[in-house]
């Protein structure tokens, strides 16, 4: 199964977090901050269910498939340091996330679409893989096409939020430079990553 393309508002309500940032999905969570469904009475969620919810937050927030998340988890487990923190740092380094955190797109799905359509370059080379892991010193630019420049200048004007501290962003120039690797404190997703590690270690 590919990435999720269904109703985003339902996922935000189910997980109780704005994992999808588009206006309709965030509005759905603000209006009805309870899970979707006909019955208002909810059963107590098991430990397994809570861990599953935390894992789903990461999947939907970063637009990952189960196999991709497993690959990141295995890589994080082989890296020195806390496995959960390393997992989220790997997700933060994805090109689609960096473009979103730099303020060049309004949402991660929008950034992912732009990358797939060859709108962006890294160090002067066109990259079409949203999962490309950025490193310190990488310079992300928009391809020099008049139509793209006009489109993204309009997008940048509507972006909400400040760029991440570990990214030197120039929204007016439509460029961004990865200054350092992100730390766990830079992760913008509220998630109990310890439960995710326990879940994926089963």
From TrEMBL:
GO terms for molecular function: rRNA binding; structural constituent of ribosome. InterPro entries: Ribosomal_uS4, Ribosomal_uS4_bac-type, Ribosomal_uS4_N, S4_RNA-bd, S4_RNA-bd_sf. Residues 3-92 form the Small ribosomal subunit protein uS4 N-terminal domain. Residues 93-153 form the RNA-binding S4 domain. One of its GO terms (cellular component) is small ribosomal subunit. SMART domains: Ribosomal_S4, S4. Pfam families: Ribosomal_S4, S4. One of its GO terms (biological process) is translation. Keywords: Ribonucleoprotein, Ribosomal protein, RNA-binding, rRNA-binding. HAMAP family: Ribosomal_uS4_B. With S5 and S12 plays an important role in translational accuracy. Part of the 30S ribosomal subunit. Contacts protein S5. The interaction surface between S4 and S5 is involved in control of translational fidelity. Belongs to the universal ribosomal protein uS4 family. This is Small ribosomal subunit protein uS4. It comes from Polystyrenella longa.
């Amino acid at each position: 199964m590919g990435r999720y393309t269904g109703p985003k508002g339902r996922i935000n309500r189910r997980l109780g977090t704005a994992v999808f940032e588009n206006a309709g999905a965030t509005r759905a969570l603000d209006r009805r901050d309870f899970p979707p469904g006909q019955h208002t009475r909810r059963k107590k969620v098991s430990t397994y269910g809570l861990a599953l919810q935390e894992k789903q937050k990461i999947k939907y927030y970063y637009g990952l498939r189960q196999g991709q998340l497993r690959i990141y988890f295995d890589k994080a487990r082989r890296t020195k340091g806390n496995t959960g923190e390393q997992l989220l740092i790997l997700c933060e380094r994805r090109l689609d996330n960096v473009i979103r955190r730099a303020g060049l797109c309004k949402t991660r799905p929008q950034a992912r679409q732009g990358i797939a359509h060859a709108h962006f370059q890294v160090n002067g080379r066109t990259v079409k893989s949203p999962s490309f892991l950025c490193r310190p010193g990488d310079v992300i630019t928009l391809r020099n096409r008049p139509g793209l420049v006009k489109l993204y200048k309009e997008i940048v004007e509507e972006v909400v939020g400040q760029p991440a501290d570990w990214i030197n962003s120039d929204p007016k120039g439509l460029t961004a430079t990865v200054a350092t690797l992100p730390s766990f404190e830079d992760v913008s997703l509220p998630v109990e990553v310890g439960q995710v590690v326990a879940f994926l270690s089963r």
